[in-house]
Amino acid sequence: MKNIAVAVFCFAMFFGVVFLTVEHKVELEPTLYNYFIEQGTADTGAQNIVAGILLNYRMYDTVFEAMILLTSVMGMLHFLYTGDGHGHSKKAGREAHKGGKND
Amino acid sequence: MTEKSSIISTMTGFLYPFIVLFGFYIIFNGHNTPGGGFQGGSVIAALFIARYLVLPVDDFNMDTLHYVEKAFLVFLLLLPIVFIFPGLHLLYEQFNVPYLIVMNFLIGMKVSLGLTIIVFRFGFFREG
Amino acid sequence: MNTIVAEAALLLVMALMALLTIQTKILRMAIVYMGIFSLAASLVYVLYRAPDVAIAEAVIGSGLVALLYLSALKRYRVYTIGVVGSDMPNVSDRHILRLERKAVINDIAEFCVEREREPQTVFSQESIDEALLNTNYDIVIEEYEGGIRLYGHDENYLVDELELLFSIRDRDAELEVIRFRAGAGI
Prior knowledge:
The structure holds three protein chains of three kinds.
Chain A: H1 2-21, H2 32-44, H3 49-57, H4 59-79, H5 90-100
Helix pairs in contact in A: 2-3
Chain B: H1 6-28, H2 37-54, H3 62-83, H4 88-91, H5 96-123
Helix pairs in contact in B: 1-2, 2-5, 3-5
Chain C: H1 2-23, H2 27-47, H3 51-75, E1 78-85, H4 93-100, H5 103-114, E2 118-123, H6 128-133, E3 139-143, E4 148-153, H7 157-169, E5 175-180
Parallel strand pairs in C: 1-2, 1-3, 4-5
Antiparallel strand pairs in C: 3-4
Helix pairs in contact in C: 1-2, 2-3
């Protein structure tokens, strides 16, 4: 019950802060996004401007995101490595089990 | 997840071709409609994971998946290095759309293989 | 107008599911609530006109992540109970039988079945200090002449529920529950 009260309080504070501080009408200088909307299709040939920006204007972002995925896969392989390069060796697992618990 | 559920296997068998079609549709129309390589790749990864839900056997070589994923990453790095970074996309504008399609395809394959490897590593990991 | 109502309803569903996820006692139900949360979030993305984000959220949030958590939960099922005592060097079958007949052990086994855990009892010759340092044990039971002492880690939430169960069933005469903190001793 106390936890629920704390959670409700946190939600109320969060929404209060958001509604008090967020500016709903901000006038940005219309330089870059107008350029993307007007010239994006002509520059990149993509009807979907998101794909155009991701794969053409912001190419470095996409390349390094792909490398982030490769890094996470390498981390998985490192932490779940069990000895035979295949990831799920029954023999290595059983030996580790035997060494760990003395029953 | 070791017991076979006939509901899950029947429904997955029914949905299997539609998942493939939907994934490749998202990938190959990524330059015209919402979506792209990452979204279509995760849909195709969901295909392999549905197969894991129905039939949890590892009758394929996981190392091959690693090599293929790394090869896709090399091509993914190579294509923009050749086409975008020297500024060729400003000179040859007729290659822009094929470039987008090929890049979406490479990203989709790489993402689907990466997510599949991650989930299968967790699923088939036996530590005793 | 309809869009605003649907948006409000979906956001309320998201808040409700987030609360249920952290409030539920059964971890498998928490995973299901989290999947529903991701599904509602993807519908909200559709309403905000970001369908590409919605596809990724629906597949990854409620598909892949739920499956990852489920497979991790499957690894987490064995509940290891370490038993140490003063006469443990010459432990015999009769001793094990005498211990297993005690009501406290039966209570713990019943509790594990209820929580979908598999109890695994390890009779060890370690001293109590060594056993508390051994991270393979979820709880440690020490036997002595007067009864049983049960050691549980300070942040182990299952020990909280075990304590509650023991206080309901009135086992205080033969049992003493001691909470310890890792690294700080008893």
